[in-house]
Specification:
Elements lengths: L13 E2 L20 E6 L5 E4 H5 L4 E8 L4 E12 H7 L8 E6 L4 E5 H4 L5 E6 L2 E2 L9 E3 L12 E7 L29 H4 L6
Parallel strand pairs: 1-5, 2-11
Antiparallel strand pairs: 2-3, 4-5, 5-8, 6-7, 6-11, 8-9, 8-10
The structure holds the ligand Nc1nc2c(c(=O)[nH]1)N[C@H]1C(S)=C(S)[C@@H](COP(=O)(O)O)O[C@H]1N2 and molybdenum atom.
The site of molybdenum atom has 5 residues, from loops.
């Protein structure tokens, strides 16, 4: 199925008007002066970017629907940010790199395949629908990877760790899927097939 087909509703999703706001570990205090977005791990050279550097771009615009694994979607959200591929490329990932772990200021973590992070419409967003991200929505930055469920969009993003092998993040430890592709409906891990058929709420 073409991932670009935004007219199509991903399996098991329904549209709502507004984002349902989540902060499972609370909303962190953000000291934007001291803030750096770090790209580290299995890389040739670490990258450390202040917020102004992220803002100065160049910024790409990604207009896509946003899909939460609990079943709600928001149509046509417009995000602006720096391409993840640019940031990760700057850090020169070493051969054998296959995953990326996002680290947030609140302690939240979530992994994505490097392949998805490098997709052309994968960005580190600093703006949503024409305005800087609000504190609740993840200021100063959050990754947006349109083909993956919303839990992979780690709000208050501070670190992008390049990995060779897979590691669980916060929700993955609790049974959510390693990849989380919305078109393949990858909600839960394959083990415990019963989980895949459990009722989806929200
Ligand atoms: N740091 C952090 N990032 C997070 C979450 C969270 O609880 N903490 N929730 C995730 C989930 S499950 C979703 S669907 C989206 C929700 O984004 P919103 O709170 O902006 O609606 O954020 C994701 N990123
Ligand atoms: Mo979610």
């Amino acid at each position: 199925m073409p991932e670009e087909a935004q007219k199509e509703v991903p399996p098991g999703q329904r549209y709502v008007k507004r984002f349902i706001y989540y902060a499972c570990l609370g909303v962190p205090d953000v000291d934007v002066q001291g803030y750096r977005l770090r790209v580290f791990g299995n890389v040739g050279r670490e990258v450390s970017l202040p917020y102004e550097k992220l803002l100065s771009g160049p910024l790409s615009t990604v207009e896509k629907d946003f899909h939460c694994v609990t079943g709600w979607s928001v149509a046509g959200t417009r995000w602006e940010g720096v391409r993840l591929g640019e940031l990760i490329g700057e850090a020169a990932p070493l051969p054998g790199s296959e995953w990326v772990m996002f680290h947030s200021l609140d302690g939240y973590t979530t992994p994505v395949p490097l392949r998805d992070a490098l997709a052309p419409d994968s960005i580190v967003a600093v703006r949503l629908n024409g305005a800087p991200l609000s504190r609740e929505m993840g200021y100063p930055a959050r990754p947006i990877i349109p083909a993956l469920y919303g839990w992979k969009s780690a709000k208050w993003l501070a670190g992008v760790e390049v990995l060779e092998g897979y590691r669980d993040g916060f929700w993955e430890e609790r049974g959510y899927n390693e990849v989380g592709n919305v078109w393949k409906e990858e909600r839960f891990k394959e083990w415990g097939g019963h989980l895949r058929r459990s009722p989806i709420s929200g």
